[in-house]
Amino acid sequence: MTSGIVTHQVLFALGVGVLTFVSTNIDCAVVLIPSLWVGDGRRRGRYIAGCGIGNCAVLAAAALAAAGLTRLPGAWTAWLGVVPILMGLLSIRRNSPDPAQPQLIPSAATGLIVTSALGVDNVLVLAPVIRAFGRLGGVVVLVHLLLFPTALALVARARPGRLGHWHRPRAAGYLTIAVGALLLGRQLIL
């Protein structure tokens, strides 16, 4: 009986981890991906490594923020879902067509700086998620650690002509709202 509950909780944490990964990294993709197609393979590899280090820095900041949130009483944890909902609503409200993005020269430093700068809002979404899952918050972090470099590496190998023009879709805001709703409803589900 308890192993079924634990399995359900781990699967739920994995699902929320994937959902938060997608919702928090759409804006990063718009800026980072075009730079992957500039330069040779060695430069791309360094760029991806820099992006990975930047992503680790963002996750570390989110984990530290989540540790600070442990002072909240357990019953209040579900209310942390309000933060991602507000972030999603702000994203939808301010979603306007971005002007042409400048081309970045791919390097490890560029990847690190851009990923860290774009990841500041990710901390506001990830910290409540990690705190809400308690011990399983590590599953959410692990999903991000595994998916981020994998997604960048796959896109780096793609042909830009087949992917078409990149836009910042409203989907990110809706997905972030879904993450918040899952946190709010988590007490009822689990």
Keywords:
about 0% strand; mainly alpha; globular; about 190 residues
Please tell me about this protein's structure.
The chain has eight helices and no strands. The chain is globular and about 50 Å long. It has helices at residues 2-36, 41-68, 82-93, 108-118, 120-132, 137-157, 160-163, 171-189. It has one domain (24-189).
Which secondary structure elements does this structure contain, and how are they paired or packed?
Elements: H1 2-36, H2 41-68, H3 82-93, H4 108-118, H5 120-132, H6 137-157, H7 160-163, H8 171-189
Helix pairs in contact: 1-4, 1-5, 1-6, 1-8, 2-4, 2-5, 2-6, 3-8, 5-6, 5-8
Instruction: State Rg.
Output: 17 Å
Share of β-strand residues: under 5%
Q: Characterize the overall form.
A: globular
Helical residue percent?
over 70%
Number of strands: 0
Mean of pLDDT:
73
- Domain count: 1
Main sheet specs: none
Which spans of ≥5 residues are poorly predicted at pLDDT below 50? 162-168
Number of helices: 8
- End-to-end separation in angstroms reads 14 Å
SSE arrangement, N to C: HHHHHHHH
Query: Helix- and strand-based class?
Result: mainly alpha
Protein name: Permease
Keywords: Membrane, Transmembrane, Transmembrane helix
Transmembrane segments: 12-35, 47-69, 75-92, 104-130, 136-159, 171-189
Task: Give a quick rundown of the structure.
The chain has helices spanning 2-36, 41-68, 82-93, 108-118, 120-132, 137-157, 160-163, 171-189. With 190 residues, it is an all-alpha fold.
